[in-house]
Design goal:
- By secondary structure, this protein is of the alpha/beta class.
- The protein has one domain: TIM Barrel, CATH 3.20.20.
- The protein is built from 12 helices and 8 strands.
- An 8-stranded parallel sheet has the order 3-2-1-8-7-6-5-4, with helices on both faces.
- Strand 1 (about 20-25), helix 2 and strand 2 form a beta-alpha-beta unit.
- The chain starts with 6 loop residues before the first helix and ends with a helix.
Amino acid sequence: MQLEQNRFKQAIRAGRQQVGIWSALCSNIVADILSTTAFDWALIDMEHSPNELRSVLSQLQAYRNGSVAPVVRPPWNEPVMVKRLLDLGATSLLFPMVQNAQEAEAAVKACRYPPRGVRGVSLSHRGNRYGDVGDYLERYEAETAVLVQIETQSALERVDEITAVDGVDGVFFGPADLSADMGLIGQPGHEKVTQAIRAGAARVRAAGKPTGILVADAALGAMWLKEGLTFVACGTDLGLLAKGARALNAAVRKEAGLA
């Protein structure tokens, strides 16, 4: 058996825009549902949701037979967790809060075996189909996407050096944390935040690498895609459930005269 190609990495490298969704509900059933949609990718979040390795594994299994490519965000830029996620079969990782080139290099090294990195070696795991993928050691690096997240003004100032790190496949902008760092907490759509991201994304694109972002609605997602960002998550499963449930409750109460 040969290692499967990472279609998400191929797509963003080729400049094909990818529309995605953020997943924080920690459910393989939700992943199974999302796998039937026309989204290009879905982010399994471990930083701001109670996902653990077993729940991530069940979601990766749910996505396996669908057309939606899973991306996993580990809770931190930490090599032990990265090693375990790669062994589970994650092929695209989004590293949160990368502040400089050294931290970007650490993320890349966590995804590579020695002597190019620090990933511990197991010869039988889900990532290589329990030893059945004969070319895994030769090709896993080419099929692993390393994405780094810019979330502070300091990181924005260093976006050129972060982008230039060998092995960084894409740069993702986090409006929520950036807005807080700019003194605009809770205002990720503020014009100053938007302008800062717009400038940073232009520098990344000028260096020839893909850019991504998470936004809360369709209009903002479309805006960023029109501006040339490559991989855009335009909502969250948690947000869809919460907003949908509230809207349904309000509609029924209004129609019944109980509002």
